[in-house]
Automatic annotation (TrEMBL):
InterPro entries: ATP-synth_a_Xtn, ATP_synth_asu-like_sf, ATPase_F1/V1/A1_a/bsu_N, ATPase_F1/V1/A1_a/bsu_N_sf, ATPase_F1/V1/A1_a/bsu_nucl-bd, ATPase_V1-cplx_asu, P-loop_NTPase, V-ATPase_asu. It is an enzyme of class 7 (translocase). It holds the Pfam family ATP-synt_ab_Xtn. One of its GO terms (cellular component) is plant-type vacuole. GO terms for biological process: ATP metabolic process. Residues 14-74 form the ATPase F1/V1/A1 complex alpha/beta subunit N-terminal domain. Residues 117-203 form the ATPsynthase alpha/beta subunit barrel-sandwich domain. Catalytic subunit of the peripheral V1 complex of vacuolar ATPase. V-ATPase vacuolar ATPase is responsible for acidifying a variety of intracellular compartments in eukaryotic cells. The keyword Nucleus does not apply. GO terms for molecular function: ATP binding; ATP hydrolysis activity; proton-transporting ATPase activity, rotational mechanism. This is H(+)-transporting two-sector ATPase. Keywords: ATP-binding, Hydrogen ion transport, Ion transport, Nucleotide-binding, Translocase, Transport. It catalyses: ATP + H2O + 4 H(+)(in) = ADP + phosphate + 5 H(+)(out).
Length: 563
């Protein structure tokens, strides 16, 4: 290292406070510049400049650093490597490949100061040019080659957004590593060669041609989300909830079954055993393609693991690393989903670093800029017309889990992220009356409201993710199930209201009578979820449609009888 750097590139540690280090002799440094701290070359990032001194947040354990240790400037921002080999990989918060580090060090923990390239540089990828020839004009974002990353993903090799010129050389079809130069372009007399790998600073959003309105639903396969809380590809979603409520389960279900083209799963400050569960489960999980093939879910997933026992400062980096990876795939024309589990831990990391910087705290000790930081992260989602040719659209959907301490939804992180929505409110009001005076005191129509609410809560919203028939619920099945339940509610209410005054003999239709006469149909109504999507869409649709027609016919016959 000493051979590569001049004396002016070195600073010296004056103060160490947890993950925060203050160094002197740092004149000429830039904000968010990457530095190497101490004899172990720990990775750090400059977060404040004051005169000749720089405040650095270190992304590794700082034990053992002493006053006077050297800080080396790299004159580059914290960046990620983008290229073939991302899918199916597992990184830490600053894009160090965990599998490669485990093989290199033979240890279960990441050694301090370890340097390992993010993408495997020994793999020869099969590169196929798309039709650019020598003499053609090319601009940033143009796709000049395709690499078959795996059986699910075609990796489109693009010119970096800040490059343009005339093609003077393009590699023929063949096998190349990510460091082999595959294209050379000339602009204003200067020639530049590019390989399949790009470097991009994580804090800078990748540029797009135009932001578009999102118009395609994000189908999750979870009835409660698809029916009551629909999301769009290119939108932002939040999953708030206290500890053990199932936020991580929902995030994992989205990763497994959503209609996004791929998923970047960022475990940001969650428990290590939860991330270990993801690492063990995901490689074994398969997804069924439209042509019937079974493929590993890891082929469309990239994991960024940054658990709660890893250094606090790297949590912020892991969120930005994840969103930059998602933006890169968006630029290829894919719809990608980024899971942040959980943004609360990131906010807690901001609070800790802010405290060590002696900044003025705001609500609950969080820094005053918490809302701005959250907004700058969430606004990187969206559906876009991306740069370059061919003309294409892509989207990034952000799903952020929020874990308010003690389940307190007035927590600043939660209130900065979402507004809570009430569902099944009418049923709650009726339940209060039932607890006071009993169910028999309710009007028949109110009893039907309670019965319908029970069907919705117990038979529709409850979904067993461990069963073959219900782990994933296609949207058509969700729609047909809800149509049948709402049809029951509409017809039962109409039948009760029509005969409320009784017929010639004084007989009326009541909920109890409906249950006695139509027990078999109501049993089918509660058993809709057992229809297995594996039987095929046509069969499931016809079975649920037959139930709809039976409901209509039976209620019509009952009304005829009591007319």
């Amino acid at each position: 290292m000493a051979d590569r750097y001049k004396e002016s590139d070195y600073g010296y540690i004056r103060k160490v406070s947890g993950p925060v280090v203050v160094a002197d002799h740092m004149a000429g440094s830039a904000m968010y510049e990457l530095v190497r701290v101490g004899n172990d070359s720990l990775i750090g990032e400059i977060i404040r400049l004051e005169g000749d001194s720089a405040t650095i947040q270190v992304y590794e354990e700082t034990a053992g650093l002493t006053v006077g240790d050297v800080v080396t400037r790299t004159k580059k921002p914290l960046s990620v490597e983008l290229g073939p080999g991302l899918m199916g990989n597992i990184f830490d918060g600053i894009q160090r490949p965990l599998k490669a580090i485990a093989q290199q060090s033979g240890d279960v923990f990441i050694p301090r100061g370890v340097a390992c390239p993010a993408l495997d540089q020994s793999i020869a990828w099969e590169f196929a040019p798309t039709g650019f020839k020598v003499g053609d004009r090319i601009t940033g974002g143009d796709i000049y080659g395709i690499v078959k990353e795996n059986t699910l993903m075609d990796h489109k090799v693009m010119l970096p957004p800040n490059a343009r010129g005339t093609v003077t050389y393009i590699a023929p079809s063949g096998h190349y590593t990510i460091n082999d130069e595959v294209i050379e372009i000339e602009f204003q007399g200067a020639r530049r060669k590019y390989c399949m790998k790009q470097l991009w600073p994580v804090r800078s959003p990748r540029p797009v041609a135009q932001k578009l309105l999102a118009d395609t639903p994000l189908l999750t396969g979870q009835r409660v989300l698809d029916a009551l809380f629909p999301a769009v590809l290119g939108g932002t979603c939040s999953i708030p909830g206290a500890f053990g409520c199932g936020k991580t389960v929902i995030s994992q279900a989205l990763s497994k079954y959503s209609n996004a083209d791929g998923v970047i799963y960022v475990g940001c400050g969650e428990r290590g055993n939860e991330m270990a569960e993801v690492l063990m489960e995901f490689p074994q999980l398969t997804m069924t393609l439209p042509d019937g093939r079974e493929e590993s879910i890891m082929k469309r997933t990239c994991l960024v693991a940054n658990t709660s026992n890893m250094p606090v400062a790297a949590r912020e980096a892991s969120i930005y690393t994840g969103i930059t990876l998602a933006e890169y795939f968006r630029d290829m024309g894919y719809n990608f989903c980024m899971m942040g589990d959980s943004t609360s831990r990131w906010a807690e990391a901001l609070r800790e670093i802010s405290g060590r910087l002696a900044e003025m705290p705001a609500d609950s000790g969080y820094p005053a800029y918490l809302g701005a930081r959250l907004a700058s992260f969430y606004e990187r989602a969206g559906r876009c017309l991306v740069l370059g040719a061919p003309k294409r659209e892509g989207s990034v959907t952000i799903v952020g889990a929020v874990s308010p301490p003690g389940g307190d939804f007035s927590d600043p992180v939660t209130s900065a992220t979402l507004a809570i929505v009430q569902v099944l409110q009418k049923e709650d009001e009726l339940n209060e009356i039932v607890q006071l005076v009993g169910k028999d005191a309710l009007a028949e129509t109110d009893k039907i409201v309670l019965e319908t609410a029970r069907y919705i809560k117990d038979d529709y919203l409850q979904q067993n993710s461990f069963t073959k028939y219900d782990k994933y619920c296609p949207f058509y099945k969700s729609v047909e199930m809800m149509r049948n339940i709402s049809t029951f509610h509409r017809l039962a209410t109409a039948a009760v209201e029509k005969t409320a005054s009784g017929n010639a003999e004084g007989a009326r239709i009541t909920l109890n009578l409906i249950k006695q006469r139509m027990g078999d149909v109501l049993y089918k109504l509660t058993s809709q979820k057992f229809e297995d999507p594996a039987d095929g869409e046509d069969r499931v649709r016809s079975n649920l449609k037959a139930l709809y027609e039976e409901l209509v016919e039976r209620f019509r016959a009952m009304e005829e009888e009591f007319r």
